[in-house]
C-alpha cells in the first residue's frame, strides 16, 4: 500500500471537507436563490394578474351587456313570437340581420351574431354577410351541448372557448374564415304565450381580441399566457396551438387557492414555472407559464460569482491548511526526531517548546519517559552496585574462612587431646558456621541450612553467656527446602542477644516460626527480651529503612543490611517489619518470595 505522509493526509482531509462544505453551501445558495426568484416571479405575475383582472372582467361585462341589449330589443322578441305573415316574418328576419350587423360594427371584438329560433329559423351576421334562413334544424348548433345547456336555463349566459364558426352553422352558408378561433356566449330567452318557446342568441367573440387584453403578460421570449374555463379547456391563449384542448397543468393546480404557482416539466420541453390566478366572479383561470431558463440570466451571474468564490475559497483554504498543517506537525516532527535519537541510543533527549495541547501532553509524556529511562538505568546501576557492596560486606566477615576453618580444626583436636570438651564443642560450632562461607557460592540456600546455621550460632553464644538462651524453631517439613537469603537470620538473632537480653543476664527465649501465605514465605523471629518503647521502635525502623546505614553503628550491619538485601534481591515489596513492646519483647517478621530449590 502506498504510504502517504501525514502532512499530505491532513491537507487532503482539509481540502475534501472544505470542498464538501463549499459545494453543499453553493447548492443550497443556488436553490435558495432559485426559490427566491420563483417567489419574486410569482408575486410579480400575480400583481399583473390582479391589474389584468379588472380589464378582463370589464370585457366580460361588456359582452354580457351587449347580449342582454340584443335579447331585449323589440325586433328580437317580435321575430321570436312570429305572429306576422310569412312575408312580414321574412322582412323581420332581414331587419334583425341588419341589427346584428350594426352591433358588430359598433363592437370591434364581435366576430359574428347568431339567433337560433326554436322552429329552426336562423338569423346571423357573419363575415359581413347578413343571413336569414328558415327551417334549418340541420344547423350544427342545434345538435350541440351548447344548445341543450342553454335551453335548460333561460336567460343564463354560458361561455365557451375553442369554438369555430363551423360549430354553429353549416358550411354552405359561410364565406371565409371558417376556422377562426372564437369565444362564444350562449343565452336562451323564452317567449311566453307562444307555441314557440323562444330562441338562443350566440355572440361569437374574436379570441384574438380577448388575447390582446393580456398579451402584455408574455413580455419575454418563450413565455405564454392563457385562460382556461372550469373544465380546464383553453379558451384563449397567446399560443394558438392549445386552443380548445384541455390544459395539462390544470390537474396540478390547488383549486382551494385563488392564486399560486407550481413547477411543471412538459414532455420534451424545458421546465416551467406555472403561475395561476382565478378571476373573481367567473369560472376563468388566468395562467402564465414562465420557462425556468429565463431565470438563468440572473442565475448565471450567481453561478459565476459562486465559481469565483469557490475557487478563491479553495486557494485560501490550501494556503491556510498548509499553514495550519505545518503549525500542527512542527511539534510532531520534533517529537519524531527525538524518538529516533532515543532509538539510536541517545539517552535523556528532550522535546522543547511544548504547545499547550494534546501534542504538548504527548511530548511531555515522552520527556518523562526519556528521563525515566535514564533514571531507571542509573537506579539499576546503583542497585547492582549496592548488591555488590552488600555482598562484599557479607563476605568481609569471612576473613579467609578456609584458613580459619583449618586452624580451628587443629585447635579442636588439641582440645580433644587435652580432654577439654567444651572448647572442642565451641570450636566445632564455630567451624560449622564458617563452612558455608567457602562451601556455598550462591547468595541463596535452603531454609534448613539457615536454621542449622542459627543453631550453631546460638550454641556458640550460649558457650559465651552461660547457656541461658533457648532457641526453638517451628518449620513445616514442606518448607525446609525453600530457598532463602544466606545469613539473613543471624543479624536478627544477634540484635536480640545484644539489645534484648543484655540487661536480663542473657536469659531468655528466641522462637522462629515459618509459614507460607499467598506465595510468600514469612519468617517470624520473636524474643522475650526487654523490648522497645514507641520512640525507640520508630527510631529503629527509620534507621533500618535508610538507603545507607552508618558504618560506625553496629545495628547498621544488622537490620538495615538484611532489610536492604531482601529488597535488592527480591523487590521493594519484600523486607522486614518490626513490632515491639517495652518489657515484653520484640518480633521481627521477614517477608520474601516462596522459591523452590530449582528456582
UniProtKB/TrEMBL annotation:
Compartments (UniProt record): Cell membrane
GO molecular function terms noted in the UniProt entry: kinase activity
Catalytic activity: ATP + protein L-histidine = ADP + protein N-phospho-L-histidine
Entry keyword Kinase: yes
Domain HAMP: 326-378
Enzyme class: transferase
Domain Histidine kinase per the UniProt entry, residue ranges: 485-596
TM region positions: 12-33
Keyword Transcription: no
Broad class of the protein's primary localization: membrane
SUPFAM superfamilies: ATPase domain of HSP90 chaperone/DNA topoisomerase II/histidine kinase (SSF55874), HAMP domain-like (SSF158472)
Sorted UniProt keywords: ATP-binding, Cell membrane, Kinase, Membrane, Nucleotide-binding, Phosphoprotein, Transferase, Transmembrane, Transmembrane helix, Two-component regulatory system
Membrane topology label: Multi-pass membrane protein
Name of the protein in its database record: histidine kinase
Amino acid at each position: 500500500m502506498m504510504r502517504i505522509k501525514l502532512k499530505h493526509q491532513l491537507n487532503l482531509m482539509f481540502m475534501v471537507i472544505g470542498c464538501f462544505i463549499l459545494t453543499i453551501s453553493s447548492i443550497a445558495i443556488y436553490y435558495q436563490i432559485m426559490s427566491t426568484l420563483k417567489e419574486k416571479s410569482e408575486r410579480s405575475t400575480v400583481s399583473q394578474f390582479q391589474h389584468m383582472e379588472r380589464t378582463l372582467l370589464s370585457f366580460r361585462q361588456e359582452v354580457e351587456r351587449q347580449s342582454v341589449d340584443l335579447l331585449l330589443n323589440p325586433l328580437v322578441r317580435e321575430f321570436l313570437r312570429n305572429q306576422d305573415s310569412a312575408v312580414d316574418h321574412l322582412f323581420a328576419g332581414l331587419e334583425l340581420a341588419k341589427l346584428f350587423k350594426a352591433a358588430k360594427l359598433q363592437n370591434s371584438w364581435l366576430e359574428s351574431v347568431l339567433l337560433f329560433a326554436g322552429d329552426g329559423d336562423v338569423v346571423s351576421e357573419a363575415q359581413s354577410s347578413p343571413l336569414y334562413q328558415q327551417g334549418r334544424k340541420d344547423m350544427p348548433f342545434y345538435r350541440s351541448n351548447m344548445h341543450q345547456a342553454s335551453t335548460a336555463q333561460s336567460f343564463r349566459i354560458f361561455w365557451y372557448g375553442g369554438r369555430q364558426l363551423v360549430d354553429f352553422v353549416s358550411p354552405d352558408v359561410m364565406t371565409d374564415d371558417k376556422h377562426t378561433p372564437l369565444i362564444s356566449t350562449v343565452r336562451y330567452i323564452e317567449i311566453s304565450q307562444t307555441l314557440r318557446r323562444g330562441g338562443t342568441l350566440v355572440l361569437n367573440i374574436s379570441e384574438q381580441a380577448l388575447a390582446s387584453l393580456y398579451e402584455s403578460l408574455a413580455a419575454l421570449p418563450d413565455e405564454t399566457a392563457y385562460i382556461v374555463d372550469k373544465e380546464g379547456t383553453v379558451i384563449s391563449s397567446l399560443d394558438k396551438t392549445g386552443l380548445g384542448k384541455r390544459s395539462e397543468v390544470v390537474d396540478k393546480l390547488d383549486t382551494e387557492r385563488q392564486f399560486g404557482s407550481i413547477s411543471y416539466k412538459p414532455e420534451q420541453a424545458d421546465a416551467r414555472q406555472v403561475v395561476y390566478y382565478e378571476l373573481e366572479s367567473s369560472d376563468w383561470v388566468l395562467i402564465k407559464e414562465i420557462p425556468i431558463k429565463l431565470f438563468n440570466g440572473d442565475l448565471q451571474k450567481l453561478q459565476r460569482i459562486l465559481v469565483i468564490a469557490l475557487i478563491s475559497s479553495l486557494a485560501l483554504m490550501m494556503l491556510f491548511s498548509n499553514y495550519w498543517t505545518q503549525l500542527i506537525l512542527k511539534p510532531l516532527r520534533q517529537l519524531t526526531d527525538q524518538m529516533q535519537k532515543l532509538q539510536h541510543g541517545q539517552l535523556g533527549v528532550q522535546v522543547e517548546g511544548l504547545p499547550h495541547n494534546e501534542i504538548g501532553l504527548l511530548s511531555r509524556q515522552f520527556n518523562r519517559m526519556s528521563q525515566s529511562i535514564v533514571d531507571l538505568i542509573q537506579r539499576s546501576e546503583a542497585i547492582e552496585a549496592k548488591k555488590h557492596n552488600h555482598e562484599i560486606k557479607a563476605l568481609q566477615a569471612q576473613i579467609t574462612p578456609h584458613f580459619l576453618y583449618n586452624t580451628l580444626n587443629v585447635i579442636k583436636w588439641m582440645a580433644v587431646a587435652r580432654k577439654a570438651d567444651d572448647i572442642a564443642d565451641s570450636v566445632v560450632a564455630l567451624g560449622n558456621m564458617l563452612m558455608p562461607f567457602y562451601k556455598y557460592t550462591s547468595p541463596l540456600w535452603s531454609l534448613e541450612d539457615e536454621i542449622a546455621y542459627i543453631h550453631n550460632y546460638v550454641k556458640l553464644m550460649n558457650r559465651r553467656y552461660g547457656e541461658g538462651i533457648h532457641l526453638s524453631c517451628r518449620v513445616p517439613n514442606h518448607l525446609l527446602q525453600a530457598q532463602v537469603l544466606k545469613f539473613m537470620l543471624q543479624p536478627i538473632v544477634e540484635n536480640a542477644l545484644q539489645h534484648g537480653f543484655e540487661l536480663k543476664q542473657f536469659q531468655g527465649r528466641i522462637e522462629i516460626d515459618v509459614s507460607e501465605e499467598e506465595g510468600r514465605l514469612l519468617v517470624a523471629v520473636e524474643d522475650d527480651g526487654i523490648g522497645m518503647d514507641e520512640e525507640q521502635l520508630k527510631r529503629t525502623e527509620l534507621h533500618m529503612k535508610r538507603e545507607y546505614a552508618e558504618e560506625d553503628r553496629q545495628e547498621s550491619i544488622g537490620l538495615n543490611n538484611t532489610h536492604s538485601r531482601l529488597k535488592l534481591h527480591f523487590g521493594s515489596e519484600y523486607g522486614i517489619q518490626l513490632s515491639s513492646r517495652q518489657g515484653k519483647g520484640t518480633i521481627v517478621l521477614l517477608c520474601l518470595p516462596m522459591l523452590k530449590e530449582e528456582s
